[in-house]
Amino acid sequence: QHSLFSAFSKFGPLYSVRAHRNAAVAGPGYYAIIKFYSARDASRAQRACNGQRLFQKSPLKVCVCTKQKGFQQQVLALNSNKCQELANHYLGFNGWSSRIITLQNISGFDGENEELGKTLQKRSVKYLCAVEVTLPNHGVHTRGVALGEADIENGEDPLEFVTATRRVQKLAVGKALSSAFQKILLVVLENGKVAVEYNSTREELTDSLTEEELKGLVQV
Length: 220
Hints:
5 helices
């Protein structure tokens, strides 16, 4: 997988690289599934690498897969780590920044259940987060709001509570960051330059609020 990554990442950032053994009926060997963020990069890689000996004795057969079973009508959002990876590649580490506007605890008891004559309370940790992403060189600012939550089996255990709280906070921040990035369109031109547009189709009601209004809304 390392050799594949080194060979194909020259054509653009990779989403994932997976290598698998051939099925028994196909004979010894391996096949790999390499996913690019950009279809343009994938096409360039296919044209350049097909039939070549990149790091092995026999030539590679490289094809572009365009069929995705079950996802034709579904667009999946990138997680926050993938969003940051793309931003760093196309904009540079200093080409964007993010900050947390608010991260607030909105936890409470989910309810009470009667079991064996005892009242059991199942505790849930919930955090609501609002994040702003700024691209200073392009004058673009976007926001993302998201909820992170998790159940705690033993609400009386302080270690479990602290661990769950940290995990939920990280989850809320990551989801909010991903939401903010979904409103940014990166247009990669043929000369390698990158243009940035604001994706207004992803706008939310919270985008029109001031920071004070947003914090007040979260508190309510």
